[in-house]
Amino acid sequence: MDVLEEFIVESAIDSEASSYRMILEDIISDLNLVNAIGRIYVSIRPQDSVFQMAIVLRKSFSPVKVSDFSTLDTTNSGEKGVLIKLDTEKYLPQLLGNLWEKYQRPNVLQPERRTLKILCDDPESEIDVIADMVVDDPQKTLQSKLAEMAIRAAPEGFRVRYHYFEDNQFIFVASEEVMQDKWIEQAHEMLVKISGGDSNVKGT
Fold it and tell me: What H or E segment, with its residue span, contains residue 109?
């Protein structure tokens, strides 16, 4: 696995910390999170029934809109509609699915592989709607992967959970017992430590 900017694993038993570090490395690689995670701080205290994780991502990701990878124009030649010329086919399946759902499949034409025409009564207003249409949300996908990573890394039976995710920061706390505010506060402090004192967390 590629080296992270910071990788801290704490436990009362050194050998236990080393084992958890290897487990985390395997999970991070398995979920293809190596390039996403910049810093990670994990504390395992089975004697207190608490597992804490704080992560700073290398960057945050914005939703991908149609206007990010295509040019749009209106057309009144023949049937009125909106023309979409794609710069890439990467998001074509998601885009087609969204357009079929909103405009109905018969009104979504594909005269060329990278050209779509959406038949509509008011192209001038629909062009802005289509331009702002979100076809992919990498931040949401990343959040799901981080949650899966944390759940897989937590000790078995730790089913009482708390998590926080905003911008490029993630916190996860798990326990077998009732969640305690001090555990969440400690996880916030862990995040501040690896963020260099720059954390978006406003409190619990």
Answer: strand 108-112
pLDDT tens by residue, 139-169: 888 999 999 999 999 999 999 999 999 889 9
Q: What are phi and psi of 136, to 5 degrees?
A: -155, 140
Look at residue 119 and give its three-state secondary structure.
strand
3-state SS assignment for residue 20:
helix
Could you tell me whether strands 6-11 and 37-45 are parallel, antiparallel, or unpaired per DSSP bridges? parallel
Residue ranges of alpha helices (H) inside the chain are 14-30, 92-103, 123-131, 138-153, 181-194
**Helices (runs of H) and strands (runs of E) counted in the chain:** 5, 11
Helical ranges in 1-67 per DSSP H = 14-30
Buried b (16+ CB within 10 A) or exposed e, 176-203: eeeebeebbebbbebbeebbeeebebee
Summarize pLDDT for 97-144 with one digit per residue, the tens. 999 999 999 999 999 999 999 999 999 999 999 999 999 998 888 999
- Sheet strands side by side (includes 81-86): 70-75, 81-86, 115-119, 108-112
Distances (CA, A) of 180 to 101, 183, 203: 45, 6, 14
CA distance 38 to 140: 18
**What token pair was written down for 119?**
């038949």
Residues belonging to the chain: 204
